[in-house]
From TrEMBL, chain A:
It catalyses: N(6)-[(R)-lipoyl]-L-lysyl-[protein] + pyruvate + H(+) = N(6)-[(R)-S(8)-acetyldihydrolipoyl]-L-lysyl-[protein] + CO2. GO terms for molecular function: metal ion binding; pyruvate dehydrogenase (acetyl-transferring) activity. This is Pyruvate dehydrogenase E1 component subunit beta. GO terms for cellular component: mitochondrial matrix. It comes from the Eukaryota.
Automatic annotation (TrEMBL), chain B:
The lineage of its organism: Eukaryota, Viridiplantae, Streptophyta, Embryophyta, Tracheophyta. GO terms for molecular function: pyruvate dehydrogenase (acetyl-transferring) activity. The pyruvate dehydrogenase complex catalyzes the overall conversion of pyruvate to acetyl-CoA and CO(2). It contains multiple copies of three enzymatic components: pyruvate dehydrogenase (E1), dihydrolipoamide acetyltransferase (E2) and lipoamide dehydrogenase (E3). Keywords: Oxidoreductase, Pyruvate, Thiamine pyrophosphate. This is Pyruvate dehydrogenase E1 component subunit alpha. It catalyses: N(6)-[(R)-lipoyl]-L-lysyl-[protein] + pyruvate + H(+) = N(6)-[(R)-S(8)-acetyldihydrolipoyl]-L-lysyl-[protein] + CO2. Residues 100-400 form the Dehydrogenase E1 component domain. Signal peptide: none annotated. Its EC number is 1.2.4.1. PANTHER family: PYRUVATE DEHYDROGENASE E1 COMPONENT SUBUNIT ALPHA, PYRUVATE DEHYDROGENASE E1 COMPONENT, ALPHA SUBUNIT BACTERIAL AND ORGANELLAR. SUPFAM superfamilies: Thiamin diphosphate-binding fold (THDP-binding) (SSF52518). It comes from Salvia divinorum (Maria pastora). Tetramer of 2 alpha and 2 beta subunits.
Length: 365, 438
């Protein structure tokens, strides 16, 4: 019965979208007879919209989120709908407005702070780590910080060294934070809703190049109470020969690599982490115990990266099950270059993943 | 807004550069301090650099909007001739102020004793000498108003209402402390009394305070609640060179947030003199630059601080926006209990010791027949007993249990993730026993 209720709600939701959001929703309606498709951008926008309308304490803050409709058009239409007091355009003061967001969260509101890219979060990292992540602990549970820090993370295309770093590992090492890395539209919607409802500080790392990508979404995803649990990875593709663990954009690359590997007779299992902290060690280890080989893929710098942590966890928990050393693919250990051809070399590509998977498989064959 | 022609000026700040407060406040001093001669002779050499840097022309430009009302100005002028007939405080208020300041002083002195006996450890920063600022401001607040402080936060917490027992236990690292021993000296939090920390990084509390003020405004205007809460941000002279300070002055003024920025200018940031680190040492000037009033007040005089605080807090409550208040004050002890305090001139310390705010308030109470010796001694005794009791309580309290290590990292403990058995780690019974592996 719940399923029917949900479907009804989803249908109503589609109507509501139609009247309020114009073109985007018309396109959605056009597809509603077949599988629905949604871009990551629309997924995030709709999640923000729904959470803001459900709870008046939720508000958005960041550079260009209001009148500019979002630097990457993620917050399009929200200013018109909720007004300038709930979609706050800030001056260029990361440390200041992040701190203001944290202070507002201390005192009872639920801010969503946008960083134009997470590279700029470094100007505010004192507040993310010291006043947001650690406060619930330091105050012994008196002051919780229900804040979400979101924005694009990792490499875009040709934006140079100061705009291309992936911060998953840095934030992932700090206790008190939850760090989420959505890949598909379903991930983006579900995880962002879960993040906004979560009573703890959440770092929500999106990816600029994924914003425009379309993914099929089920009717359940479109429901306004849809949430994805934090801390659970998703097995995007089942396999039995090698496990490929990735997050964010690299999941797409891994799926492509898995297709190529399938043609060569290697059946790869692709895990979409969804959550860097807490890391779903249970899913990773269960998969390794099944396939006995693992390849980790990330965009960030190799040293002390996410792959290093996954390798450590696999060695600690499933050492006897490994038939080959853990293969770790990461970005090159250099600041990102500008020129297109060497920039391509600085980040993992599908061929790199294929090669690493083969290495993992041929080691003992 | 700050440069309006209707500005009223209380103190002429022009004299600021020549010496510290003493001489220019003589004319409007209710509580008599030492003669100016003493002040200028010893401090003159330190302030030479400031003196030469500030030309008369630049001092006159940019209006100083002082926020005290005409009534106060009148009172101040009157008192120069005779003892003020129109007193600023009633007897009850006077005793409350005295008690609060003495509580702060006695508590900090006890902290020093306990530290040297090994009961307290780590970084402990004491507030001796600055009590007038804390008492003058915080005693005007309601429970719902917020206070955000720095690492020198024991007395701010006490003034706001956190029981001495809880603060002392927290310092001892016991589980009965206000943060159950998880915060420590520099991280006093109390949700009940709206003390939002306790921050170790200077400048970190300012945006958090601005955020609390933002919440207050949001509650009033978006959630349509009846909310006139005010936030006070306390910080030092060193912080006034920090970027976050300026960012928040800008945004608070831009959005007219109900906040008062209180600068406790004690002239020293550990061993760095304010004059050595700041291009323009007059901090109140930074207010008008951002469109808010900048006020300068003698922070060793609790009544003057209280006057200014009343106006500033009133402004914020009425929705007129933020104020920057610079309180000239001094810390009698070193930066922290680990600081040998070798760089400060002993003569400077002696000078300020004669301007002890508690002694000054006592004198005022006697001179104006608001209280007698016996009443104040009774208060002293009461406070001493409270402090003794808090030490005994802290001593007798238990240390945190093992399971407390993993507690409160997340408000939602599923943040610890999924364990190897596929269930959430926080569901593992061993989690609360302190024996689970995370």
């Amino acid at each position: 019965m719940l399923g029917i209720l949900r479907q009804r709600v989803a249908a109503k939701f589609n109507y509501a979208l139609n009247f309020e959001q114009g073109i985007g929703s018309v396109a959605l309606r056009a597809f509603s007879s077949s599988a629905n498709k949604m871009t990551v951008r629309d997924a995030i926008n709709s999640a923000l919209d729904e959470e803001m309308s459900a709870d008046p304490k939720v508000f958005m803050m960041g550079e260009e989120v209001g009148e500019y409709q979002g630097a990457y058009k993620i917050t399009k239409g929200l200013l018109d709908k909720y007004g300038p007091q709930r979609v706050v355009d800030t001056p260029i003061t990361e440390a200041g407005f992040t701190g203001i967001g944290v202070g507002a969260a201390y005192h009872g509101l639920r801010p969503v702070v946008e960083f134009m890219t997470f590279n700029f979060s470094m100007q505010a990292i004192d507040h993310i780590i010291n006043s947001a992540a650690k406060s619930n602990y330091m105050s012994s549970g008196q002051i919780s910080v229900p804040i979400v820090f979101r924005g694009p993370n990792g490499a875009a295309s040709g934006v140079g060294a100061q705009h291309s770093q992936c911060f998953a590992a840095w934030f992932g090492s700090c206790p008190g934070l939850k760090v989420l890395v959505p890949y598909s539209a379903e991930d983006a919607r579900g995880l962002l809703k879960a993040a906004i409802r979560d009573p703890d500080p959440v770092v929500f790392l999106e990816n600029e190049l994924l914003y425009g990508e379309s993914f099929p979404v089920s009717a359940e995803t479109l429901d306004s109470s849809f949430c994805v649990p934090i801390g659970k990875a998703k097995i995007e593709r089942e396999g039995k020969d090698v496990t490929i663990v990735a997050y964010s954009k690299m999941v797409g690359f891994s799926l492509q690599a898995a297709d190529i590997l399938a043609k060569e007779g290697i059946n790869a299992e692709v895990i979409n982490l969804r959550s860097i902290r807490p890391l779903d060690r249970s899913t990773i280890n269960t998969s390794v115990r099944k396939t006995n080989r693992i390849v980790t893929v990330e965009e960030g710098f190799p040293q002390h990266g996410v792959g290093a942590e996954i390798c450590a966890t696999v060695v600690e928990d499933s050492f006897e099950y490994l038939d080959a050393p853990v293969e770790r693919i990461a970005g090159a250990d250099v600041p990102t270059p500008y020129a297109a051809n060497i920039e391509r070399m600085a980040f993992p590509q599908v061929e790199d993943i294929v090669r690493a998977a083969k290495r993992a498989c041929y080691r003992s064959r | 807004m700050a440069c309006s022609a209707t500005a009223k000026i209380i103190h002429n700040p022009l004299m600021l550069s020549s010496s510290r407060s003493a001489e220019k406040y003589e004319s409007c001093c209710k509580i008599s301090g030492p003669t100016s001669l003493l002040g200028s002779k010893f401090l003159g050499k330190k302030l030479l650099s400031a003196k030469s840097a500030i030309s008369p022309a630049s001092r006159r430009s940019g209006a100083v909007v002082a926020v005290s009302s005409d009534v106060v100005k009148e009172k101040k002028l009157k008192s120069s001739s005779s003892a003020a007939s129109n007193l600023l405080i009633t007897k009850e208020e006077g005793l409350v102020l005295y008690e609060d300041m003495y509580l702060g002083r006695a508590f900090e002195d006890m902290c020093a004793q306990m530290y040297y006996r090994g009961k307290m450890f780590g970084f402990v920063h004491l507030y001796n000498g600055q009590e007038a600022v804390s008492t003058g401001f915080i005693k005007l607040l309601k429970q719902e108003d917020c206070v955000v402080s720095t690492y020198r936060d024991h007395v701010h917490s006490l003034s706001k209402g956190v029981p001495a027992r809880q603060v002392m236990s927290e310092l001892f690292g016991k589980t009965t402390g206000c943060c159950r021993g998880q915060g420590g000296s520099m991280h006093m939090f109390s949700k009940e009394h709206n003390v939002l920390g306790g921050f170790a990084f200077i400048g970190e509390g300012i945006p958090v305070a601005t955020g609390a003020a933002f919440t207050s405004k949001y509650k009033r205007e978006v959630l349509k609640e009846n909310c006139d809460e005010v936030t006070l941000a306390f910080f030092g002279d060193g912080t006034c060179n920090n970027g976050q300070f300026f960012e928040c002055l800008n945004m608070a003024s831009l959005w007219k947030l109900p906040i008062v920025f209180v600068v406790e200018n004690n002239l020293w940031a550990i061993g760095m003199s304010h004059l050595r680190s700041t291009s323009d040492p007059q901090i109140w000037k930074k207010g008008p630059a951002f469109g808010m009033p900048g006020v300068h007040v003698d922070g060793m005089d609790v009544l003057k601080v209280r006057e200014v605080a009343q106006e500033a807090i009133g402004r914020a409550r009425r929705g007129e926006g933020p104020t920057l208040v610079e309180c000239e004050t001094y810390r009698f002890r070193g930066h922290s209990l680990a600081d040998p305090d070798e760089l400060r001139d002993p003569a400077e310390k002696a000078h300020y010791a004669t301007r002890d705010p508690i002694t000054a308030l006592k004198k005022y109470l006697f001179e104006n027949n608001l209280a007698n010796e016996a009443e104040l001694k009774a208060i002293d005794k009461k406070i001493d007993e409270i402090i003794e009791d808090s030490v005994e309580f802290a001593d007798a309290s238990p240390v945190p249990a093992r399971n407390q290590l993993l507690e409160n990292v997340f408000a939602d403990p599923r943040g610890f993730g999924i364990g190897p058995d596929g269930k959430y780690r926080c569901e593992d019974p061993k989690f609360t026993e302190g024996t689970a592996q995370v």
